[in-house]
Design goal:
The protein is of the alpha+beta class. It is 29% helix and 24% strand. The longest helix has 24 residues.
Length: 546
Amino acid sequence: MKQEMLINVAQPEECRIAIVEDGVLEELYVERTEQDNYVGNIYKGVVVNLEPSIQAAFVDFGVGRNGFLHVSDIEPQYFRQGGIDPNAAFGPAGPRRQPRRENGGSSVGDEFDEGADDRRRQRPRNQRYNPRPRFKPPIQEILRRGDEVLVQVIKEGIGAKGPTLSTYISIPGRYLVLMPALGRIGVSRKIEDETIRRRLRDVMLELNPPKGVGFIVRTAGSDRSRRELSRDMAYLLRLWKVIARRIKRLPAPAGIYEESDMIIRTIRDIFTGDVNTIYIDGKEAYERAKEFLQLVMPRYVHRLQFYEGKEPLFCKYNLDEEIAKIHRRRLPLRAGGSIVIEQTEALVAIDVNSGSFRAEDSAEETAYQMNLHAAKEIARQLRLRDLGGVIVNDFIDMRKERHRRGVERALRDALRRDRARTKILRTSPFGLVEMTRQRIRTNPNRSAYRECTACKGVGMVKSVESMAIDVVRMLILAGQRSSIKRVAVTVAEDVADYLNNRKRHELARLEEEGAMTILITGVETAAPEHLVFDCRDAEDRQVKFP
């Protein structure tokens, strides 16, 4: 299998990164310069409001709009009994109270907590360490207005919603993730081989990380040597010390740590030994990526190539046409049939249609084979479109239980490469496969498109007849107002033609009954639902209507 990473930065307003496997687009990342991307950034914020009804706090972290912090994303160090115990908070993530209050908070700025490992050793052996306890006190007992908290953005804001925050800080390296709140060594769940897991734990313990600081070995670190893991750990510890000093020095709200740009971030998080070549079509970006690879992954520098072809990079691989399909509602499948994707605020509905696809002469086998093809494409589209929340897949009905289980298995297998967290339920009695998927990035549709000014995002507009009926209905209402003597109505040109021709007698009757003059004007460039009423009295003064 040939896997390539294509980085397109030819246009300064946009950066696009595609992962292509044997000519098929498997992953796509798009970032525009005018869009603020806060995910992964760390801030020192101030609690400005508490909402006990939804167990959440709103935090001002200095970007213009407040972030959303749910109680489930608050570290145990913030818990208190009649106030936060300053001796219980570890590291710079500890909250700071305003000096005027009782039960003053912990000091922000200590680099590591010497006692975290000691407290863990005092825990009974049969009690497993869990950084996210099952039971948490109400948020009003954890935080108060004016408290300083160290937060990290974990999800971009959508629409009017602010970014989602967490106090569980994590700083990713190439092979390790530093997690101050963890206080122990962990291994990624995606590394399933128990022998490899034990080896990685032993290597990490030999490296003797500082007390009170936790590390998680990433999937990319499963086959790395002790030296490579040690170098990554040293880099993260140096970075953490810099962050700790900034936390102590800067007043809240303030930015503490900013994630790398998308090129460095994607190479760091996604590049593996399976990627044969990285192509970049921008000289400056190429030099920046080369410097990063020489520092972090020197053995792979030769795989980085500067693209000098005259044909645009994405056009050469026929990706622009593929990217255009991402924004379409109906997507044809290569084997025949199609899937229809409908997205709402919190739910995505996906419908599978067989179309002209046929397998043998059996309806059951046709449905099964069609659903297998659709399951793979659904997993791919979820990655490309970054669809999240609750997802309901309406596959073609199948009678045999083994076929249903086979489709579920195919969907799970296709989702294994997805970096977002997913959970799939078994087929429901109605033949639906329900699942959830974590959403972090902004949906590509939201950044590439804007809401239609004509339909307001509905996708349909009123017909000419419906608009004419609405106008007449409002004119009847205006006729009941004795103060109104003249009405000027501005609508789309075809609506005006309909009213002046088809409704001429009705308009004349309304003028006579209401003792008023009606003027219908059409505007050629107006939207189909454009409607403006200008009502005047006998002295030509404007009358508020409706």
